[in-house]
Amino acid sequence: MNQNELKKALSRLPLGDVRYFDSIGSTNNEALAWATSGAKDLSLVIADAQTAGRGRLDRKWFTPKGTALAFSLILRPTAEEKPYLTRIVGMAALAVADALRTRGLSTQIKWPNDVLLNGRKAAGILIESVWSGDELDCLVIGIGVNVLKGAVPATELLQFPATSLEESLGPAVEREKVLRDILAGIIALRPHLGTDSFIASWEKALAFRGEQVQIEEGNGSSSTGKLLGLEPDGSLRLSSEDGESITVRFGDVRLRPRA
Ligand code: BT5
């Protein structure tokens, strides 16, 4: 990644400190360690390649050199933000979706942490936290975006089809500018985290609304129902076949296969 372009792109953002790596295990691991040792709010770790990028439940996230965005933003939540931390994943997803939308792309959020482009996964988000005793000290917002085609893993490695920005926009897309727009989006959304309009925008961006979905909850159990929207804490709201309301806090959503 061109470091001059990176500096230029980030120069107007009110970030903390920035650490850049040509290659790293996982930017989230670096950010978690840095947060523990006192990183400032909005400090950023960014890498051109990851050798041990992670998804949820320790799944692998692939970041081949020179093809993607892989970064972790450290957030020190304010007292006003602390009641709304379960919304942070939505804030990150909306910021990614908005950055793609301003490039004319049609995006959707596959709850909770994927951004889809033409129905395929173009970005993933991993939120992790640092605790100080019983108090949450920091959150790390890890974001991976497939910018060039070379970032998209082979189909057999995927649970859900993937794509890149290049597939829709051609090869001229500039990673540094996409990064700048995502970060600017997070910074702009942050003051609205606790508002009803924030939840409304997140809900509006959701994929599969009104459709029958199946949610694998990661512990062997799954829920099925019609995807209605979000609870105020960002949980997913479904209605079962007999009209009962179901709330899901964690999982992988997919369209329910037709019987
Ligand atoms: C995610 O998890 O989608 C979260 C990905 C977060 C990655 C960022 S990169 C910067 C920071 N540092 C890290 O170490 N991580 C964060 P999940 O929903 O669990 O999806 C993981 C699944 O996505 C894998 O099991 C694969 O099937 C698929 N996958 C892996 N790499 C992919 C890629 N480049 N594009 C699309 N899908 C991918």
Q: Describe the strand arrangement of the main beta sheet, using strand numbers.
A: 1-2-3-7-6-5-4
Helix content: 10-25%
Query: Which descriptor suits the 3D outline?
Result: globular
What is the percentage of strand-forming residues?
Answer: 25-35%
Q: What's the N-to-C terminus distance?
A: 48 Å
Major sheet attributes: 7 strands, mixed
Counting copies of identical and different chains, the oligomeric state is: single chain
Structural class: alpha+beta
What is the average per-residue confidence, as pLDDT, rounded to a whole number?
96
Per DSSP E runs of 2 or more residues, the count of β-strands stands at 12
Taking Cα atoms only, what radius of gyration do you get, to the nearest Å?
18 Å
Distinct bound molecules: biotinyl-5-AMP
DSSP summary: helix tally: 6
Task: Give the H and E element order.
Answer: HEHEEHEEEEHHHEEEEE
Enumerate the spans where pLDDT stays under 50 for 5 or more consecutive residues: none
Structure description:
The chain is α+β, with helices and mostly antiparallel strands and 259 residues long. It is 24% helix and 29% strand. It has helices at 3-10, 27-36, 88-101, 165-169, 175-189, 196-204; strands at residues 18-21, 44-47, 68-75, 107-110, 114-117, 120-132, 135-146, 212-216, 222-230, 236-239, 245-248, 252-255. The strands form 2 sheets. A 7-stranded mixed β-sheet has the order 1-2-3-7-6-5-4, sandwiched between helices. Helix 1 packs parallel to helix 5 (175-189), helix 3 packs across helix 5 and helix 3 packs across helix 6 (196-204). The protein is globular. The mean pLDDT is 96. The structure holds biotinyl-5-AMP (BT5).
